[in-house]
């Protein structure tokens, strides 16, 4: 059982995870320390979540038995330089850094258990989607502990590390695509006469409802789409335009581009 949790990098994703962890009472604020290079960010995290804060990554690593790496990919090498010799072999490293292989981190932290995770920001509202890949020193207990955390803040599954770039392109970046869709649908609602806030609520609740139908029923989305689509009705008129404008191909291209970018971030 882990007692002290450290976050290296206290940005958007660390905040989403801290929020999810605290709201599910997986750990108390007193068990969490956040390290960042930006003092204002630490002040914010401290006052918002009552967690401890530090600018000293090495001290945080020495005091933590569960360490989240949550800096941008371009900063991970500098962070690893500073951690060498400060991470206990009994500690667990959970890296959420996009594109950076377990091997890269393992080379710098020999024999330390590492789990690489690709979560997404909805972990902040217990609706996250996370994929976990276990490094060579991460045993079943460590995997279960990490899965417990990510299951508490949404869904998770264990997969081969080779699939994590694709996961990044789909569900890691996916909330970004969904926000664009919601914003565009809200614009559309305003265009046809709805007040802005009403249009945003209609768009967001509709995407959430459709997603929930897919997950709850287990039906193929095409079958559920057919159930909305009356012959000669309104929905097929709308879907016809989506197909004409290439929305489907645009989404495929978006996931492809994000997956390729994830590979580039790891210089592969
Ligand atoms: N935002 C997202 O939706 C997701 C992000 N990720 C990954 O999570 C990681 C963090 O992403 P975000 O939170 O969005 O980025 P962010 O930019 O909001 O947060 C990164 C934080 O790290 C801090 N930092 C920079 N250098 C540091 C150092 N040497 N020591 C300690 N802290 C340092 C920065 O000041 C910043 O507050 C990235 O690697 C990203 O690929 C993974 C899944 C989803
Ligand atoms: O945009 C990014 O690079 C990160 C990784 C997945 C989501 N956000």
UniProtKB/TrEMBL annotation:
Residues of the Pyrroline-5-carboxylate reductase catalytic N-terminal domain? 4-99
* Domain Pyrroline-5-carboxylate reductase dimerisation stretches: 161-265
User: Which annotated residues bind NADP(+)?
Assistant: 8-13, 70-73
Q: In which pathway does it act?
A: Amino-acid biosynthesis; L-proline biosynthesis; L-proline from L-glutamate 5-semialdehyde: step 1/1
Superkingdom as given in the UniProt entry: Bacteria
Q: Which residues bind NADPH?
A: 57
MF (Gene Ontology): pyrroline-5-carboxylate reductase activity
- One annotated GO biological process: L-proline biosynthetic process
Q: What's its EC?
A: 1.5.1.2
| Cellular location(s) | Cytoplasm
GO cellular component terms attached to this protein's record: cytoplasm
Look at the named UniProt entry and state the broad enzyme category this protein falls under.
oxidoreductase
Q: Which UniProt keywords apply?
A: Amino-acid biosynthesis, Cytoplasm, NADP, Oxidoreductase, Proline biosynthesis
Q: Does the keyword Cytoplasm apply?
A: yes
Give the catalysed reaction(s), semicolon-separated: L-proline + NADP(+) = (S)-1-pyrroline-5-carboxylate + NADPH + 2 H(+); L-proline + NAD(+) = (S)-1-pyrroline-5-carboxylate + NADH + 2 H(+)
The family classification in the record reads:
Belongs to the pyrroline-5-carboxylate reductase family.
Q: What does this protein do?
A: Catalyzes the reduction of 1-pyrroline-5-carboxylate (PCA) to L-proline.
Which HAMAP family did the record assign?
Answer: P5C_reductase
Name of the protein described by the UniProt record:
Pyrroline-5-carboxylate reductase
Q: What is the lineage of its organism?
A: Bacteria, Bacillati, Bacillota, Negativicutes, Acetonemataceae
């Amino acid at each position: 059982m882990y007692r002290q949790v450290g976050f290296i990098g206290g940005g958007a994703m660390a905040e989403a995870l801290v929020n999810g962890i605290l709201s599910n009472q997986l750990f108390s604020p007193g068990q969490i320390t956040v390290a960042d290079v930006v003092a204002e960010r630490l002040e914010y995290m401290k006052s918002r979540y009552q967690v401890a804060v530090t600018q000293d990554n090495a001290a945080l690593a020495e005091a933590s038995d569960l360490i989240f790496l949550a800096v941008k990919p371009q900063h991970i090498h500098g962070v690893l330089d500073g951690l060498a010799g400060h991470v206990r072999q009994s500690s667990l490293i959970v890296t959420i850094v996009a594109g950076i292989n377990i091997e890269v981190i393992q080379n710098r932290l020999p024999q330390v258990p590492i789990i690489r995770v690709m979560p997404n920001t909805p972990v902040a509202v217990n609706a996250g989607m996370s994929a976990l890949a276990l490094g060579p020193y991460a045993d079943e207990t460590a995997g279960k502990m990490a899965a417990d955390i990510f299951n508490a803040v949404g869904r998770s599954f264990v997969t081969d590390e080779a699939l994590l770039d694709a996961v990044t392109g789909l569900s890691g970046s996916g909330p970004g695509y969904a926000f664009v869709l919601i914003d565009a649908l809200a614009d559309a609602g305003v265009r046809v006469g709805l007040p802005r806030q009403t249009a945003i609520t209609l768009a967001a609740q509709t995407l959430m409802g459709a997603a929930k139908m897919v997950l709850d029923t287990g039906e193929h989305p095409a079958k559920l789409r057919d159930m909305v689509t009356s012959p000669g009705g309104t929905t097929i008129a709308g879907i016809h335009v989506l197909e004409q404008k290439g929305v489907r191909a645009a989404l495929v291209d978006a996931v492809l581009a994000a997956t390729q970018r994830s590979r580039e971030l790891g210089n592969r």
